[in-house]
Specification:
Number of helices of chain A: 11
Strand order of the largest sheet of chain B: 3-4-5-6
Distance between the termini of chain B: 26 Å
CATH architecture of chain B: 2-Layer Sandwich
Mean pLDDT of chain B: 95
Largest sheet of chain B: 4 strands, antiparallel
Helix content of chain B: under 10%
Order of helices and strands of chain A: HEHEEHHEHEHEEHEEEEEHEEEEHEEEHH
Mean pLDDT of chain A: 96
Helix content of chain A: 25-40%
Number of domains of chain B: 1
Oligomer: heterodimer
Number of strands of chain B: 6
CATH superfamily of chain B: Folate-binding superfamily
CATH topology of chain B: Folate-binding fold
Structural class of chain A: alpha/beta
Strand order of the largest sheet of chain A: 5-6-4-14-15-16-13-17
Shape of chain B: globular
């Protein structure tokens, strides 16, 4: 594989940029693989990469219905954080933070990781108390957390509305300074390029149409480009999980819902951090291009549409303007939607299933992007060793029936309001 | 924007309604011995189909009645709406 560096850039510049190799190939599916990963998004590609790198399994196919990086890994608001209270989530996402910090070097691909810090605003004394508790829980798990008072928030984010005339005055905030953003497309491309170089077949425009299971064991899959034999299949298909589950006669504790995001026209640097509203659901950061990147609530009813509705967008941006009044003067550049695998407790599932050789990775709700490296790392372990890693031991499929929920927000099973 | 025909009030915008989830989920009968698996199915497991989905909506800014809506989850086409006690055929 060609190494990307300053020197290779200069060398190729002198030869008119004609010497660059393709970043990943376009192979024809083989008849048989040791492992097939369904879903060529961030999680699927990361899983293939860590299977090859950590477990030396390279006879792998990543099957993608569309093109790699065309799903949620290219549709999110690029936020990376590990500010969770429960141990299962905190330790898992903090492993992810470690992997994010070294990812550009590890993948030899600039993923533009920008640890600019996330600030969760608090709008009441009770919320400050809750954030103090959450911050303490985070620090016990080795995650950085700082409680900010109103004046400290004002210093960091002066463009917030600090006037007396607001419905939800800012009391303070919880900040995770090591959180941040990364370039989402680069994550998919970086993992794809490295996985490809280690022998992984990335097969795009190939739809899974069925499974071949006998005696409770995985034997292979049927696709639009022919049958493929394999003893191990990993599902990494986010919002499409329930569609594949139906082919497997499984009913899962997840529902598919739509989440929108949007960006404004680009403006000069004004926001140095990721900031979230504490009295509703709105989050905002500024991209390197200068666009304000914004997101908020789900559309509110089951949806596979991959496009959003205006009432939700209006609701979300009303919250945004309550936080940042200047947003009302900006033009909207682009809005889009992605379909989320909303689990019944808001936490993910990475586990084996009752079918030997079928592994499940789903339930990411709207937190899938930041989990990409940790998800790939632990899912690769689960597939290769046929047992869960200690970091995903809590993300069991049977935790719902046994009562071991990891309900970070305590919202219950109404996934569309979470 | 969805437009939902409330069986009591007529065609109204989605803004007047609150969503109530999958209407095909049945609560286990009262006073019956319920296994853990039956509770699991009722509380947590959902088909979440792509296509026709029978769901509950609450006309919260209208007549405040719960209604059932048969809607396509990928096109958002609404095929029919029903009163809560009405049989869906």
């Amino acid at each position: 594989m060609q190494k990307y560096s300053f020197l290779s850039l200069i060398k190729n510049a002198f030869s008119g940029h004609k010497g660059w190799e393709v970043a990943w190939k376009d192979p024809t599916p083989k008849k048989e693989y040791d492992v097939v990963i369904i879903g060529g998004g961030g999680h699927g590609l990361a899983t293939a990469y860590y299977l090859a790198k950590e477990h030396k399994i390279t006879n792998i196919a990543v099957i993608e219905k569309g093109w790699i990086g065309g799903g949620n890994v290219g549709r999110n608001t690029t936020i990376i954080r590990s500010n969770y209270m429960h141990d299962e989530n905190g330790l898992f996402y903090e492993k992810g933070m470690d992997l994010w910090r070294s990812m550009s070097q590890d993948l030899n691909f600039n993923i533009m990781f920008s640890p600019r810090g996330i600030i969760n605003l608090a709008h009441s004394d009770a919320q400050m108390n809750a954030y103090a508790r959450r911050g303490n829980s985070m620090r016990l798990n080795g995650i950085d957390a700082v409680l900010l008072d109103r004046e400290e928030v004002k210093k960091k984010v002066p463009v917030l509305d600090f006037s007396d005339n607001v419905r939800f005055p800012i009391f303070g905030a919880l900040m995770q300074p090591s959180a941040g953003t990364a370039r989402h497309d680069a994550v998919a491309w970086g993992y794809a390029r490295q996985a490809d170089s280690m022998g992984v077949d990335i097969i795009q425009h190939c739809e899974v149409t069925g499974f071949d299971i006998s005696n409770g064991k995985m034997q292979g899959i049927k696709t639009s480009r022919g049958d493929i034999k394999t003893k191990k299949v990993g599902l990494c298909v986010a919002g499409s999980t329930s569609i594949l589950a139906e082919m497997l006669n499984m009913t899962l504790p997840i529902e598919t819902h739509l989440l929108q995001a949007c960006v404004s026209e680009p403006i000069k640097p004004i926001l140095d951090h990721v900031v979230t509203f504490g009295a509703g659901h709105f989050y905002c950061s500024q991209s390197d291009k200068g666009e304000m990147v914004m997101g908020g609530d789900l559309d509110g009813y089951n949806s596979y549409a991959q496009r959003g509705n205006l009432p939700t967008l209006q609701h979300v941006l009303t919250e945004g303007i309550a936080m940042f009044p200047f947003l009302s003067k900006l033009n909207m550049l682009r809005t889009w939607g992605g379909i989320m695998d909303m689990s019944m407790d808001g936490s993910p599932i990475i586990d084996k299933t009752h079918i030997a050789g079928l592994y499940l990775n789903c339930g990411w709700c709207y937190g899938g992007f930041k989990a990409t490296p940790a998800s790939g790392f632990t899912f690769a372990h689960t597939i290769a060793q046929d047992r869960v890693h200690e970091l995903n031991a809590g993300f069991r499929l049977d935790r719902f029936s046994t009562g071991h929920l990891i309900d970070e927000k305590g919202l219950g099973t109404k996934t569309w309001i979470s | 924007m969805l437009y939902i025909k409330c069986p009591h009030c007529g065609l109204r915008s989605q803004n007047e309604f609150a969503y109530g989830g999958d209407a095909s989920v049945k609560r286990p009968e009262l006073n019956k011995e319920i296994s853990d698996q039956e509770w699991d199915e009722f509380v947590y497991l959902r088909k979440s189909p792509r296509g026709k989905h029978l769901e509950l909506w609450h006309h919260v800014s209208g007549c405040r009645q719960w209604i059932k809506v048969l809607r396509d989850t990928s096109t958002h086409e609404i095929f029919n709406t029903y009163k809560s006690e009405e049989k869906v055929g």
